[in-house]
Amino acid sequence: MQILRINGWVATGLGLTCCTLLHAQDAFVDRFVGDLGAAVYSTSATVKSKEASTTALPYVYGDWGRYFARVDTLGAKLLPVGMGHLEGVLRISQEGYDTRTSALKGIGQRSNPVPIGLGTFQRTSIGGVFVYAMHDLNSGGNALDLTYGARLDLGAVKMYPQAGLEYRSQAYVQHLYGVSSTEAAASQAAGGRLAAYTAGAATTPMVGLAITVPLSGPWSLQLQWRHKWLDNTVKNSPLVGALTQNTGFAGVSYEFK
After folding, report:
1. What is the pLDDT of residues 205-257, one digit of tens each?
2. How many whole angstroms separate alpha carbon 204 and alpha carbon 120?
3. 116 phi and psi, to 5 degrees?
4. CA–CA separation, 41 and 248 (whole Å)
5. What CA–CA distance (Å, rounded) separates 193 from 85?
6. Strand partners for 105
7. What angle do CA 223, 65, 4 make, to 5 degrees?
8. C-alpha pair distances (Å), 17 with each of 3, 57, 87, 132
9. In contact, 70 and 87? CB cutoff 8 Å
10. Beta-ladder partners of 257
């Protein structure tokens, strides 16, 4: 089996792995099973002079055979591991932003990261554990996400408290929140006051809560809120004007069984 080494991280070559595992003995259902709908997603601003963003997008949480979508994570189940699978994943990131504002003169746009990699969802008797190790194609940096989610039933309402850690390497954080000497000079020439800044790696703790409220028949209201405490290397960036970040969504979905 081919091994691909990316910035010191070892990942299984996804192309050969997928071909090898096509004959796995898992019994996958050849139709979509899960929730499909639409939601309004909101993210509080961390960058100076940037307003909170609100976007209407599809909501998908379910499986189609070995392929799956979990809101912002798309992937394929490659190999049975423990109480879940080894998965190839692609993260849909909204971390990028446009810094071309009056308060950030001379600073260009930060494109959204494109993290791809491997992960697993382990369904245990005390909750679910999600682990993803990814490489960002834009910055060349790496990301590691670890999330635990439990389930509490309050009548027909399902509640999923969450807690986790997000690690971003120096290159990943620098792409989003660093300021090069060239950008600092351009900012000052345009009347701004931004100084050059080299960011380091960041570790960000997170807590959250997801709620599913039955409406009528297969229809449900989907709610989620997450709160993150920004790492010092992010908070100290001259681009950043916040200590924490809140994200969430509210939507309506139809359950396919």
Report:
1. 999 999 999 999 999 999 999 999 999 999 999 999 999 999 999 999 999 99
2. 20
3. -130, 155
4. 6
5. 50
6. none
7. 95
8. 10, 32, 10, 17
9. no
10. none
Q: Which two tokens stand for residue 223?
A: 């709610």
C-alpha dihedral sign at 172, 175, 177, 178: positive
Coil/strand/helix, residue 102: helix
E strand residue ranges, the chain: 3-6, 9-12, 32-43, 53-64, 67-70, 73-81, 84-91, 115-124, 127-136, 142-149, 152-154, 157-168, 202-214, 219-229, 244-256
User: For residue 170, how many C-alpha atoms fall within 13 Å in the half-sphere facing its CB?
Assistant: 5
> With a threshold of 0.90, does the pTM exceed it?
no
Q: State which amino acid sits at residue 110.
A: R
- Cβ-contact 139, 113 below 8 angstroms: yes
Span 99-123, pLDDT tens digits: 766 667 778 788 999 999 999 999 9
